[in-house]
Every structure is written in C-alpha cells, then in structure tokens.
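User: We ran a pulldown and think these components assemble together. Before we commit to crystallization trials, I'd like a predicted model of the whole complex to look at. Sequences follow.
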Amino acid sequence: MLGLLWLIPAFPLAGFVLLALAGSRLSRRGVALVGVGSVGLSALAAFLVGGSFLLSPPVGEATTQTLWSWIDVAGFHPEIAFRLDALSLIMVLVVTFVGFLIHLYSAEFMIDEEGYSRFFAYMNLFVGAMLTLVLADNLLLLYLGWEGVGLCSYLLIGFWYREPENGRAARKAFIVTRVGDAAMAVGMFLLFTQLGTLQIQELMQRASAQWQVGSGLAVAAAALLLGGALGKSAQLPLQTWLPDAMAGPSPVSALIHAATMVTAGVYLIARMNVLFGLAPSVMLAVAIIGALTLLLAGFSALVQRDIKRVLAYSTISQIGYMFLALGVGAWSAAIFHFMTHAFFKALLFLGAGTIIISLHHEHDMFKMGGLRREMPTTFWTFLIGSASLAAIPLVTAGFYSKDQILWAAWASETGSAWLWTAGLIGALLTSLYAFRMVFLTFYGERHSLVRELSPLPALGIRIRLPLVILAVLSVLAGIVELPRTLGNLPFLSDFLHQILPGTAMKQEGAGTELLFQIVAAVVSLGGVYVAYLLILRRRQLVERWAQSPLGSPLHQMWFAGWGFDWLYDTLFVRPYVWLAQTNKQDVVDLIYVGLARLVEALHGLLSRTQTGRVRWYAAGIALGAVIAIALAVIL
Amino acid sequence: MASVPIDHALILAGILFTVGLVGVLVRRNVLFMLLSIEIMLNAAGLAFVLAGARWAQADGQVMFLFILTMAAAEVSVGLALILQMYHHRKTLDADAFDRMRG
Amino acid sequence: MNIVFYIAAAVAIIATVLVITRTNAVHALLYLIVSLLSVALVFYSLGAPFVAALEVIVYAGAIMVLFLFAIMILNLGQQDSEQERRWLQPATWRGPAILATVLAIELVYLFVASGGRLPSNGAVEPRQVGIALFGPYLLGVELASMLLLAGLVGAYHLGRRPRPQEQGGET
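Assistant: Here's a predicted model for the assembly, 908 residues in total across the polymer chains.
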C-alpha cells in the first residue's frame, strides 16, 4: 500500500495535464469529473497509504519512495523522492481531503464561469504542487513545489483576468512572496555549500553534528528559511499580499489562502525543526513575529467591511498563532492548529462564497443582514465555523488547538507571560471579529439588497455537502488531542512525536493549566457577548467611536492594515518607479547610442565638405599642398 | 645673358604660380578658371627653363616643350568641355555644377 | 641684360594680377597675352631663345587664340560682365588670398635657401635643344604627339553639336 505514495501527487498533476491539453474540448461535466476526480483519487490514495502507515508502521517511522534521480552533478544529486512520515502524512491527509471538498464545491460554484476548465487545471496543478512540497524528500524538490504553489496562487488570484485590479493583486502576491522565496533560495545555497547536501534527513544530521547551538551559520540559514516562510505564510513584514489576494474566487481563497499554501511556511519550519533548534534566536524571532502578527491582523479584521477581507486578516492572525507555537517549541500544537484551522477556515471561505454569489457578488457585510432565514445551511455551517475560529470552549476543535498554543506560550521553556498575553488578547479579538461577522451578516434587519433578491435560490448538494462535512470536522477534530485536564488524549502529539521533538515545558501543575483554560474560555465567550452587544444592540456606539477624534485615525489605520501598503509603496515602489522613469532613455544604452550619434555627427561634418564645387576642391588641394610643404620645411 | 640671382627668378615663378592659384580659387566663371590654370602652367614652365639655364643644358627647355604640348591638348579638351557645359546649363558658373555633392 | 629681366618680370606680374581681376573675358585674355609676352622676354634674357619663340608662337599665338574663339562662340556680353562683377566681391578674395600668401611665403623661403647666381656662359642654342629632342628625349616626343592626338580626338568628340534626336538627354 505504501507503494501508492507517488500516486498522491501524481493524480492531480495528471489531471492538470489532461485539462490543460484537452480541457476546452470536454463538457462541463467532463471537466468537473477530471478536476474533482483527480483530487478525489489522490485523497483515496492518501487514505489508503495513511491507513497502511498507521496500521503497520514502517521501520524508522518513515518511508521514502524514490522515483528517479533528478540531477547528478559533482556531488549534488537531488532525486525525485517522496518521504512519508507522521508530519507529511497529516499534511497530505488534510490537503487532499479539504482539497477534494473544495473541488467538489467549485464544480457547482464556478459552473457559470467561462474559464471552467482553466480553473480546474490550475487548481489541480496547485494541489499537485502542494503535495510535492509536503512530500518532498529534499529541499530542492520542496522548493519546486513551493514555486509551483506560488505560480498557481498568481494564476488563480488573477483568474478573472479581464479586471486589471485582479491582475495587480496577483502580481502583488507573487512579488511579495518572491522576496521571501529569494531569501529561502539563499538559505538553501548556504545550507548546500556548508553541509553538502539538500536531502532533509542528511541535512539535519550534518547540521546537528557540525554546528553548535547558536552558531552564526545555523542562525543565518534558519533566518533565511524563515524569510521564505514569512513570505508564503503572510506574516510580518510580508503580509500585505493576502488581503488583496481575495480578488480571486472564493474556492481559491479557501484552498490556497486559508487551508494549504499559506501554511507551507509552518510546514517548512516544522520540517526543519532541527535546524531551527540550533538557532534559538531565530526561534524567538518566530515567536515574536507570530505574536505581533496575530495582534496586528486581529485589529485589522475588526474594522473590515468586506467579508472576505475579514477572513483574510483572520487567516494571517491564525497563522500567527501557529508561528507563535513554533517559536516556543510547541511543534505538534502548531500542526494541530493547522489542521483545525484548515477545516474551519475553508468552511468559512466556502460559506462566504455562497453568500457572495447568492447576493450577486456583494462583498460588503453592511449590505447584508438577516440572512439567517434566507440561507439556513450556510448560516448553521458558518456559525459552527466561526465558533471554531473563536475557540468556543469544549464544543469546537478550535478551542483545543488554540488552548494548546496558549498554554505552550505560557508554560514552554522559551515562552513568556508576554507571549501568552498577546495570544489571549488575540483570542478576544478573534471571537470579537468572528461574531461581528456573523451578527452583521446573518442577524439583524435584512438590508434592502437582500430583500430585493429574496427568496435566494437554493444551493446544490455539491455545495452543501462540503460545508456540512467541514462543519462536522470543525467540531469533532479536537478529539485527536485532548489536554490532560480534559480527557488526556494526546493522540496527535504522540503520533507527531515520532518526527517532531516534544515541547520543553516548565513544570506547571494541572491546576494552573485548568485555570488558564478557564480564562481563555471566558475570554472567547466574552468576545461573543461583546460582539452581540455592539453589533446588535448598540451599533450607534460603534459608529460614534469610529468617528471620534481618537477612534477615527485608529479605525483608518486598522482598516488599511496598519499602513504597511503605504509604507512599502513609499519605501520601495515609488523610488523604483521613479528610477525606471528617469532611466527611460536607458543610461547604459546611451553609450552605444552615443557612439552611433557621434559617428552620425562626424559623417554630417564630412559630408558637408562634399560641396560638389570645383573651387572648393581646388582650395582643398591647395591647402594640402601648403601643409605638405610646411611640413617638409619644418621637419 | 642676364646673370640674376637664381632666387629672384625662382621667386618670379613662385609669384606667378601663386597668382594663378588665387585666380583659380576666386573666379567663379569656368573660363577664367581655365585661364588661371594656364597662368600656373606657364609659371611651372618658367621654373623648368630656369633650371635648365642654371646648368646651361637643353633639358629645361625640352621639359618646357612638353609642358607646352600638354597645355595645348588640355586647353582644347577643356574648352570643348566648357562649350558642352554651356549648352547644358546655359551658364558658366562653376558652382552650378554641384550634382556630385554629398 | 639684368635690367631687361627685372622689367619683364615686373610687367609679367602686374599683367597676371590684372588678368585675374578683370570682369570682361576678352580684357583678361589680352592681359594674359601681355603676361605671356613678358615671360617670353624673361626666357630670352635667361639665354633660352628657342623657348622664348615657342612661348610667343604656341602659347600666346595658338592657345590664347583658341581661348578667344571659345569666348566668341560663347558670346559673352555685357550681362556676363555684370555677373562677374557681382561675383567678385572683396569677401571672396579673403580666403584664397591668405592661402596664397602662406604658399608664397613658403616658396620664397625654400627658394632663398638655394643660393648662387645664374652662370653667364652663354645661351642654350636651339641646336642643342634639337639634338636633345632627337636624342635622349625621342620617346618623350613621340608621347607628346600621342597626347596631342588624344587631345584632338577628345576635342572633336566633345565639341560636337548634339543631333536633334539626342537633345533632351544627359551626356
């Protein structure tokens, strides 16, 4: 069964090739069959492989399947090889399963679009690249997948290419992540030149053998890889592209910008945990960046009007939690949160998609309202998803994963009260903005737009089924990891402990842990209540605050994502554009053009001596004679 | 036979030559240009004769004879050309014939 | 004899200068004839009577007459004199004058360097010239006659009036 490993990325890639070559000739049904089917088959293969792995684990808790040798030059021989271990198995299962559900949803969601086959081709390519990334045995293959997902992100954000804004957003995403990718490439060069290999397992061994903890090379390599992770995962300071990436269709936002691609950075750091362990300063940086990002994005999510932008900032914020977990050494907590986040964020995006399309592409939440009765399925699933996001205690998976992170932020050896406080405030913000979203959209008075369009058309089974399944998962997925105070089922962390190191914890009692859990629970419930008050009861209060002298600039700054776009525009974009415009005549070209012009000028001069007049020529001869005689006389 | 210093005689030749040169460069009428060229040729011949007289040999005069012959041939052809030019452009302006300009 | 030389030289120079400054073609021609005659006198004073005679007969007598014929064919009249006057502005003289002066200075410098007087041991008789022509310079004479033939043929061809059907085209 484990031999089926290579099929997992192969199915979607084959689907891509088929759709790219023959997609326009297939009917809608055919395209959907190929597009959804390939990912479905991949998910099936993933389950079979996973089942086999769990039931009869291979030796060394990992298996590698080498397909062929990719490059073989002077000691550098990366191969096309896939490695399955606990970490990659979890990633593969989530990516294929959630990917399959989203593809199923898109089959109906995108049914009226003109680029139907193009969409599924890109989506399949994406899933293939993501699976390559996750299963890669060496950093070069990982980078191939990394670039592949970046490309598909660009292609899919700019899917509706006729709108120039979408193209701009796609380019912005690509360029900002490129900055991170460049750092990552340099990091890979460093690793290869210092350690002589890019094969991950060997790399880890050699690194821990050759480099001291805290040595300069380890810190440099880890920091550079972190740069790549920051770009892909939209963390500070490379987070500006994700809100604009919402220009793509909702399934794209669900798959790429919520569940999978943006978590590639988390996966990278988890995969290279040995290297990061050798660089404690970088780990601290990871934690601090995570904490700052989750706060920044949380505040920004609080004041957005576009429902998808709220979710985008929410994604940035939740990945900040994952980074926080990684930074304090809570590796499995980060992966746990990744899993639950994939479920509920994909659910939220898919739900937002149905709302948007039912209201004829209306994104503004303030033009919605009262959709509770109009769209019941969407309402219930969306509510469950938001509850999981807000980490409503005990009943949602989000609670368990977020709680683990908060506890690790406090209790880990490298954790601190500051990090825990940041996480707690972030939790408050999360439930605030999540339920602000819910109340604005589904409760209250129906907006005139909604009343016009009512009754809203029913949704097909292909849309409702994924929503329901994801909702179920958002509730039940917490079962794999219950903390010691609430059942003590550390199944996931035990499973991941095969690969990821355990978290070094300070000695804290179970009582303290329970106390912290209660505090977190109170905070999240409190957030729901405050949101209820402000949105449904005292909306004027909010509006007055937004217009007050203190509130207004805050509101504007949070709305604009803390001004990072403006900052980057002023620091980088404007000078570069100015430089390009000043150099429009191309300074370097001037040398060559100048040469040509000089020759032309000389030619002009010379041709003016060709007057065609005899006397002029005679004078020339005379002048020459005079000079010649003068020379003869003088010399 | 005069026994003037050679430089004086040569200077005479030089001055005549220079005057002819000025004539070529200044006059616009081709006829006058041709005339000035004759002056120059004559001056050159004078120099040859002078040289022959210096050494009391016939070679200088022989050279002068050849120059004379050449001048005659040249003048006949040149005048024929001038007549042709006149028939074409109806002018004797040397500057009017500048189709070879670059 | 020296006096003869110097006077003839002066006349030659003055006449030549006048040649290049006249506006009337015939006047210029006549002054040139005067110049040629004075040069012939110079030749005689230098002891080269043969070429003196040749100068008068061939140069002044034939070549200048040829010029005269050409001028008469061209029928240059009052209009052309006016045109010549217009063309001969003082400004036109500047450049060539400078050039010629420089050349003259150079030549003078060169000539003064060679010193000596002309020997006064008699003229070169025509007999000597004849012997030289039929002796060492025989080939040159033949070539000169060829040259004259070429000039004859060329002048004939170029001087032809174009036939009626040839008119209107370029030659």
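Residues 89 and 96 of chain B are 8 Å apart (CA to CA). That may be worth checking against your pulldown data before setting up trials.

User: Thanks, that helps.
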